[in-house]
């Protein structure tokens, strides 16, 4: 019996299954930076403030000078941001800040409400500044939707990788952001996350396969949902079916699934977990259980701004000379250089 449930093309954003809400994949070939850490290129012809069309290989998104997403609110869910290439500047309404990237992951519990900005500073003035990231929205159960906001850093150096060789010596490397594989277990998720309970079997993995490599996804627990997203490569065989790039495959999580890569390096994301199984009411950046709670979220944001904005502007970026770092709302400082 095949483990495949459904195969579908990827859109924007990527469709996900409960307990996830959706996933977006940003890949931009940014040019050299200017003095303001924006693109050293003309912005003419772009819909500045709402530039989601790839032009010359990159987008400004909602940024006006620096690409990215200026201050905006969230409530009722979590964001997991995997920055595989390039750097992201985080600032938030709690006074916390970070610069992370090149393999780092930020896991933020919005809870009862937070504003944050996610800007993409182009630090190098001498060479191009490519960026690639995934942002995954993971729902919170009703009992945790109004917990205090929290963010944690999973630094590249602390995220476990499992390297698996097949019978032909071809390798597959799995970065374990959540869950476990073999004897490798991901860092502990935030305290109120659905992923914090091992019984929920939440897994977030990036999977990089050598040309011709074969890798078997192990069985998960019964009741879990599993999707893989083949976002870059030539061809991937999933069980007995061959798919080309930019396809998603829903799988039976409690069955093994054999993946065989084609002639080019293959890149996948896997999302897995037991469903929360509660009603979802969403309005933009607010995700609650019913429309009355959405109305309450909007009213509270209008009244409180979820703590206001303590930074000089809504597109705040950190100093060019700063390395990777995090300053938490409780004053804890992490410097990674």
TrEMBL record:
Residues 205-307 form the Pirin C-terminal domain. InterPro entries: Pirin, Pirin_C_dom, Pirin_N_dom, RmlC-like_jellyroll, RmlC_Cupin_sf. Residues 61-138 form the Pirin N-terminal domain. SUPFAM superfamilies: RmlC-like cupins. Pfam families: Pirin, Pirin_C. Belongs to the pirin family. This is Pirin family protein. It comes from Imperialibacter roseus.
